[in-house]
Amino acid sequence: MANIDYKVIVGLEIHVHLRTRTKMFCGCELSFGDTANSHVCPVCIGMPGSLPVMNKTAVEYAVLVGMALNCEISKFTKWDRKSYYYPDLPKNYQISQYDLPISRNGYIEIPLEDGAIKKIRIRRAHLEEDAGKNLHTGSISRIDLNRAGTPLLEIVTEPDMNSPAEVRALAIELQRIVRFLGVSEADMQKGHMRFEPNINLHITKAGKIFKTPITEIKNLNSFRSVERSVAYEVQRQLDEFIDTGKTMEMGNKRTFGWDDQRQATYLQREKEEAHDYRYFPDPDLVPVVFDDAMLAKIRGRMCELPLQMQQRFVADYGLSEYDAGVLTADRKTAEYFDSVVKAGADAKRTCNLLTQTGLKIANDKGVAVAELGIETERLAELVKMAQSDEISATAAATIFVEMTQNTEPPRIIAEKMNLLQKSDAGELEAIVEQVIAENPQAVEEIKTGGKKIGKSQAFLTGQVMQKTKGRANPKVVTQILTKLLTR
Ligand code: ZN
Ligand code: MN
Question: Which strand (E) or helix (H) includes residue 288?
């Protein structure tokens, strides 16, 4: 059994909170961390006789995500009641979409570790409402319904992922997409994204394929737990198959939880079937009907997606995958960078300034690089000054820092801070002459072509830099030195 041949099969269900102002079917504001049950009303606490009203923005956001995921958008959708009894859902049903999801049959492209792109098919994406939260302290359980009724987009992929790393890559890519679209903060700490992988193995033994029973892991809320729990389940299923030989045909689908402390999954329950939920159309809500004009209007809000932007930065601007990935982690930063380069700045220099100097200040201030207060035109000016050797790369970083609190043009700042490089050959030549006169030994070394020629040249250049307080253009100094020492 040492060399068992198997393939990992994973599909993913993702719940994303949409960033609307109010809840899905009532006017209560979305909140986080507020006093328990301070954002509730008869609708979201399920009082008899209260009537839901659909949030139009949530539906538009859901359509936009569907479009970004290359889905077919349904022109007619409706709302269904999914029955279940839990204290955090006082209506005893969740409003969801059963047989007519807002979008279906799409795909998402994810970047793999080796730089390749993989397409993962999207089965469907539908809108529903979130439940409240149970809070357990000691023997007391309490319920906070502030979250009940928050718009949730449930996205279901086909089982196209074949490793824990691919599942993680999809989770990260989806977070980038919904953030770029501005439809979700997708803050993992706040539970804005929750993942539920479905996992099994196709094991090849004696020329036959055995499929292990599918397990679903519930409610994962970090990229790390997604990746680790899938890896754990792969090993657990493999061990179970070796022990019992159990296959899909013999066992039900089971639901597992993830214990972060133990870094292990644990059995929760045997999976419900759809008929357990007794879905039926919600009689309180009218169906949603789109016409072409409405869909075109929503499509008008589409932006360039993060992966496309990343690929463009690599192809057109010559950035590394890594640099392009860092810049496109955040839409504002990506667009800011793009505008600076389009204003004529060198891409690599701009990237270095933003990812080295800029991100550090931005992180300290808790803002995006684009929000540091430097206009794109001004930053382009700064980069161009470095390109033309008016200032050194170090000086550019110094001026960048100053520009976050000083709106003057970079050239003025450079003058005031004495950072402009001396490139005037006439002025520099006098200084180089002086250095040559003062250091006959080094000059002799160079003229006779001794072993220390490189060192001596660097020494003389260093002397010139010292006399000019670091402001001499090193290229010009080298030219003059060569000229004067070979005459
Ligand atoms: Zn409400
Ligand atoms: Mn759901």
Answer: strand 288-289
